[in-house]
Design a protein that fits this description.
Largest sheet: 9 strands, mixed
Number of strands: 22
Radius of gyration: 30 Å
Structural class: alpha+beta
Distance between the termini: 55 Å
Shape: elongated
Number of helices: 6
């Protein structure tokens, strides 16, 4: 069905239809008039160009995929999503989302930062591209010295096993302080676990790494919503500063054998894996964690034998801008067992049936990964 939109153009051979709906495709036809006698029709299709999709976002916090979403464009029948690794050369991921305004990129590779864009489709016609969005699979890093903390290793109870437990084998990346590229680590969406161990060489390597990358780490935490877990069981004192707040460890007589959650409702205590209110054993920590700024951090796990466990922190947390810092002086997961004590529950003494320490460390990592700035 056709509607007459102009009955005479005064002999002109062009016409502007300003009444068309944005994004709507039309079929037009025109014919010449010879007085009152009409000639045959000629037809053509036309489109009032659409606006670009707005509100385009790409996720950076999902383990195995990137989720994309955008706002509806009036008149669009489908949407085309494109992806680039350099921000210049784009490839089409999908040329039709059935009119939906969300799409999942399940082909994204680990540790690759992608640039995405989307445009509306109107049959065979294309609208303009949206603003780009940067997305990636969540990046989980475990970085340490060049050997296993607390060597020799105990199968199933090392930090590498904990990373597998928390995020799944193949879904995280490993690095060493002396060789990892900090720019590949500290980027939006990254969750980073830095382990100093009880070896002076490894603690020194951690200190050097923190000092050399202080500005990068602070910017990543504050502005990019970085999530960082720094842990070292004191081979040497650890010290680093973020936004003028200095965090440091103390050793000497500061060991904690029996550790307790200050708040048993804390997400680390609650799961997703089994954790306990109190951990009994030997050397849950080889030191305590502190800050030079009162109130800057909150104790999560403290010394159960202290009058006030919160004053002797084994693990504490602090926020900086949009980011979260967890700071601990805990030993290896193989030394954390509960509710048993002594060799009966100690995997380092040959018991392979108790996985409490691995579960606790995995809960710490999952809490870090799932943190959302208020």
């Amino acid at each position: 069905t056709f509607t007459v939109i102009a009955a005479s153009t005064g002999g002109a051979t062009s016409y502007s239809d300003t009444t068309g709906v944005l994004g709507q495709s039309y079929t037009y036809r025109v014919r010449a008039l010879f007085g009152t006698v009409p000639g045959p029709y000629a037809s053509a299709t036309g489109l009032r160009p659409s606006s670009a999709p707005s509100g385009f976002t790409a996720s950076t916090d999902l383990i195995d995929r990137v989720e994309l979403s955008w706002n509806t464009v009036a008149g669009a029948t489908d949407y085309e999503v494109q992806r680039s690794t350099d921000g210049v050369n784009f490839t089409i991921l999908t040329a039709g989302t059935s009119g939906l305004t969300a799409w999942t990129d399940s082909t994204a590779s680990l540790n690759v930062l992608y640039t995405y864009r989307v445009r509306a489709l109107y049959g065979s016609d294309e609208g303009p591209f949206s603003a780009v969005a940067i997305g990636s699979r969540a990046t989980y890093w475990y970085i340490r010295g060049d050997d296993v903390p607390w060597s020799p290793p105990v199968a199933g109870h090392e930090n590498t096993d904990t990373m597998d437990h928390a995020f799944g084998a193949g879904n995280w990346s490993f690095g060493e302080f002396v060789s990892v590229n900090p720019l590949a680590v500290f980027r939006p969406g990254a969750i980073v676990f830095l382990e100093g161990s009880s070896s002076p060489a490894y603690s020194d390597a951690l200190n050097t790494f923190l000092a050399n990358n202080a500005a990068l780490i602070e910017d990543w935490l504050v502005n990019d919503g970085g999530r960082l877990f720094v842990n070292s069981a004191l081979g040497g004192a650890i010290s680093f500063t973020i936004q003028g707040v200095t965090y440091f460890t103390q050793s000497g007589s500061q060991y904690i054998n029996d550790a307790t959650f200050i708040d048993t409702g804390h997400p680390i205590r609650q799961g997703p894996y089994t954790a306990y209110d109190i951990y009994r054993g030997t050397s849950f920590t080889h030191g305590l964690v502190f800050t030079d700024t009162p109130g800057a951090m909150t104790t999560v796990i403290g010394d159960d034998l202290a009058t006030d466990p919160a004053t002797r922190p084994a693990l504490a947390e602090a926020t900086h801008g949009n980011g979260l810092l967890l700071f601990g002086s805990m030993t290896s997961p193989k030394f954390h067992w509960a509710p048993a004590s002594g060799a009966m529950g100690n995997p380092a003494a040959g018991n392979t049936t108790v996985f409490d320490g691995r579960d606790l460390r995995a809960n710490i990592l999952r809490y870090l990964a799932e943190y959302v700035a208020p």
